[in-house]
Amino acid sequence: MGTTTATREQVLRRRLRVQQLDRATDPARPPTDADVLGLGVQDTGPDGALWALALRGVPVGARAWPQDDLVLVWSVRGAPHAYRRTDLRDVQAALRPFSDADAGSRVYDAAKPMRAAGIRPVDGLAFVATTMRHVVATPTVKGVVSTRLTQEVPEPYLRWCRACQATHLWEMPFRLAALHAGLELEPGTSPPVLRRIPGWPSSRVGSVERKRGTRDDGTLDVVRQVLHLLGPLDARQVAGFLDAPVQDVRARWPRDAVPVDVEGSARDLLEEDLPGLATAARPDGDRVVRLLGPYDLFLQSRDRETLVPDAARRRDLWPVLGRPGAVMVDGEVVGTWRPRARGRRLGLDLDPWVPWDRSTARAVEQEHERLAAFRGLEPS
Hints:
- This protein is α+β, with helices and mostly antiparallel strands.
- Helices cover 34% and strands 19% of the residues.
- Helix 6 crosses helix 8 (171-180) and helix 9 (222-230) crosses helix 10 (235-242).
- The chain is globular and about 60 Å long.
């Protein structure tokens, strides 16, 4: 098969559709009916996972987490993500490090003292997970868990935290070990409260290392999921999303991935997704206007220059601190937004990047009303 060519507009419209951002809300749709849940939906900030699901036509509100159906855990990049509760064992299997080098990459600075003490990072994660399971017998706030862990683990797992003026566990091993300990996060808690996942098998506690020569991911392949929901991408971009070494990602590259040239950039896409790329060449139906949350999956791809070609605008959308949300029209980011809640009313600070025509401005107003209703507030 030869190389398929695609424009950035095709790429963005395909992502919009495959991520189901073009769906209207259906009151009969269950909370689990969103394809992005297969990769996890990041829950950072007030307009996190549930708002991302609402934008994909799932009938949820900010104050009503469907705990029987969805579960919140620390996962990719150590960030909190929502998953289908029924998928959680497969999620845990898929999120085990691909290799010891991958484990070291994921725990960042914590890898150096572990290795200096002769501890492989993958073994370190397993030890922290097993210890966390023992510590968290009942729902426990994060700070208390940290204090108890500090009393239980030896020096290579600990660091002096200048901000806290205390010695405690390195942050990334703490977060990444929690799921392998069979622990979930209690939604809506700040600081976070950890609790045991009901029915979690004891055989999975501390089960971090993969069997050599196997790809025992259960039914979830995260490399494949990233390519499906955010492709076309190259291995470096997928590795950046997963915080994994590029060589590990390349070793797991899907056999049915095919080359796609995106305006001179060599990438890959799953062969089964090529028809969706072709049909995305032309607009279909009404325009899709959405107020994307700052950490919506649509904004999480590591090919930021494709999503926002202008470097200054990229700095506006992805600052070091305090990300805004994005105003998206048919896959194009046309501005940013920030919420301003005052009492029972929700205002928006809007920054249009281009002149908005009347229909776009009206659609943004409607999305403002939708966000306010989602939060249980009135628009202002």
